[in-house]
């Protein structure tokens, strides 16, 4: 079905990202014959776009895709239109159901012994469900540290769980080896690009709903970012759009191989609480980086302390996201502060996975208060102060931006609130909750 453009080698049921000769492989279609007006009357979902999906004999579906695009309240404050693409509303609670429906449907006749995927959690939970639906065995290779909710899904759907390595990139090669040895159909996106075809349908939906100017995407392995890019590229090919929306890759400061490459910074490979973004050496780095650059977009780094803020802001919108998805909020705010957006922009935030899958009851007190935040609370005990004044009074030297960030987080934690405004200055005071917290600290 795909022929390598460089050496002519053909691939018919399994599509590695690169041909044996080294050339990149891409699944293409006869775009001139695609009539997108047919899409209008069809039911929402991944398979609505079948002209731009690989042909399958039988569709294994749980009605994935067609997820809601919710107008975000935060946009009213910021002065432009912001929308949340709520991928938590997929059958197993994440965008990976788009990958699994295409990977499993396509691989069905080649998966006599079952399917396999290497995953940090979401893709494994998805494969477990879709393989169950197809009466096939699912083998999932996951790192030692996996979100518990995702693990529970894998168990519930009867997957064979293999724990291997520290981060998901270490699982990828192992899954590939197991697939070869045991005749399993591997749908790991880094090993087989078939599933990206499912993931790209998210772009088609965004286009149908709002035709966004910007798409902000949490980025771990880069496979979702690349898929969304491919989706928009195909919309260009079929004449639906005239230019790509700007794609924004978001990673954490702790683990930032793709975002740092885009920004020209040195990247770190440390652990991040946003487990889905803990990919140290992403195979798709080059593809994802090029996709962002070609779209004219950018990248943003988010600090670990901002993950709670992101989760909480999304919760205010009525969307419960996992940390890995919550990064879209701090990213949006950072770009807004830099004056990146214009008032006619339509910004889509991709919320990839549900917080239910990653929430731990014993982590109830997730908001850490210490250091600078505590100092700010102490300063506000006596009297109201405005941002610049707080900054001047802090003993530790730090950038005003950082202090401003702390103020915003304290506000979102409802520990401080606006007391009054004088001119352009906003004065802050402690809330009752803030006073109580301070009393607890001071004893
Ligand atoms: Zn080749």
UniProtKB/TrEMBL annotation:
UniProt domain HTH arsR-type: residue ranges: 365-443
CDD domains named among the record's database cross-references: Thr-synth_1
Superkingdom classification of source: Archaea
Keywords: Lyase, Pyridoxal phosphate
Pfam families from the UniProt entry: PadR (PF03551), PALP (PF00291)
SUPFAM superfamilies referenced in this protein's UniProt entry, alphabetically: Tryptophan synthase beta subunit-like PLP-dependent enzymes, Winged helix' DNA-binding domain
EC id: 4.2.3.1
SMART domains named in the record: HTH_ARSR
Descriptive protein name: Putative threonine synthase
Organism annotation: Thermococcus sibiricus (strain DSM 12597 / MM 739)
């Amino acid at each position: 079905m795909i022929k390598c453009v460089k050496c002519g080698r053909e691939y018919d049921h399994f599509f590695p990202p690169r041909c044996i000769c080294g050339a990149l492989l891409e699944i293409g279609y006869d775009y001139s014959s695609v009539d997108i007006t047919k899409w209008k009357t069809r039911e929402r979902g991944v398979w609505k776009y079948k002209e731009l999906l690989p042909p399958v004999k039988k569709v294994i579906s749980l009605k994935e895709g067609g997820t809601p695009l919710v107008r975000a309240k935060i946009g009213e404050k910021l002065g432009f239109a912001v929308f949340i693409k709520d991928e938590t509303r997929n059958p197993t609670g994440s965008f990976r159901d788009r990958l699994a429906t295409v990977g499993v449907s396509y691989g069905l006749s080649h998966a006599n012994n079952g399917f396999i995927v290497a995953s940090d959690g979401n893709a494994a939970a998805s494969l477990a469900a879709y393989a169950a639906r197809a009466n096939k065995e699912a083998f999932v290779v996951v790192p030692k540290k996996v979100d518990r909710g995702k693990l529970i899904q894998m168990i519930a759907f009867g997957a064979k769980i293999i724990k291997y390595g520290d981060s998901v990139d270490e699982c990828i090669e192992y899954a590939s080896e197991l697939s070869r040895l045991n005749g399993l159909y591997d749908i790991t996106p880094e090993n087989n690009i078939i599933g990206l075809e499912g993931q790209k349908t998210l772009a088609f939906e965004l286009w149908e709903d709002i035709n966004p100017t910007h798409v902000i995407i949490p980025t771990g392995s880069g496979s979702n970012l690349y898929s969304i890019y491919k989706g928009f590229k195909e919309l260009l090919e079929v004449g639906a759009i005239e230019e790509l929306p700007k794609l924004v890759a978001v990673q954490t400061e702790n683990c930032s191989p793709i975002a740092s490459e885009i920004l020209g910074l040195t990247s770190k490979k440390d652990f991040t609480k946003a487990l889905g973004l803990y990919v140290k050496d992403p195979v798709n780095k080059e593809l994802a980086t090029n996709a962002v650059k070609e779209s004219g977009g950018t990248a943003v780094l988010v600090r670990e302390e901002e993950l709670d803020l992101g989760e909480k802001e999304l919760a205010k919108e009525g969307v419960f996201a996992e940390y890995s998805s919550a990064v879209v909020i701090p990213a949006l705010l950072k770009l807004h502060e830099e004056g990146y957006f214009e008032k006619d922009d339509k910004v889509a935030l991709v919320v990839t996975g549900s917080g239910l899958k990653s929430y731990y009851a014993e982590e109830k007190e997730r908001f850490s208060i210490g250091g600078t935040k505590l100092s700010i609370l102490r300063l506000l005990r006596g009297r109201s102060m405005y941002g610049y004044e707080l900054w001047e009074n802090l003993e530790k030297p730090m950038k005003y931006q950082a202090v401003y960030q702390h103020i915003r987080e304290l506000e979102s934690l409802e520990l401080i609130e606006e007391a009054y405004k004088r001119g352009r200055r906003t004065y802050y005071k402690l809330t009752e909750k803030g006073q109580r917290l301070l009393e607890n600290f001071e004893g």
